[in-house]
Write a structure and sequence with these properties.
This protein is mainly beta. It contains one helix and eleven strands.
């Protein structure tokens, strides 16, 4: 069973920053792309950012130039650095492994991000 563990969420003021972490097993880390998703209250889950095994990245338009996804191969961890946070970034953030468009893992509990003054 493919499982990943998210951490790093919290309460931050508008304009602030947070860094989320997604820890994966080495086998899945070396095989799959890793993606961050988020689900805001009352909304569907949406894809926020993806990083492939080779390090190619892609982003949701609304987070481009504010969020950066990166991977640490030694720690088998993917990070999501979130800067200039806005209230509309408030959501539960999840990570998962991808093989093309196929989601490989089960959904964990995610990590909650609240942007509020």
């Amino acid at each position: 069973q493919v499982q990943l563990l998210e951490s790093g969420g919290g309460l931050v003021q508008p304009g602030g920053s947070l860094r989320l972490s997604c820890a994966a097993s080495r086998s899945i880390f070396e095989f799959a792309a890793i993606a961050w998703y988020r689900q805001a209250p009352g909304k569907q889950r949406e894809l926020v950012a993806t990083i492939t095994r080779s390090g190619r990245t892609s982003y949701l338009d609304s987070v481009k130039d504010r969020f950066t996804i990166s991977r640490d191969n030694d720690r088998t961890t993917v990070y999501l650095q979130m800067n200039s946070l806005k209230p509309e970034d408030t959501a539960v953030y999840f990570c998962n492994a991808l093989n093309g468009a196929i989601i490989l893992g089960s959904w964990g509990q995610g990590t909650r991000v609240t942007v509020s003054s």
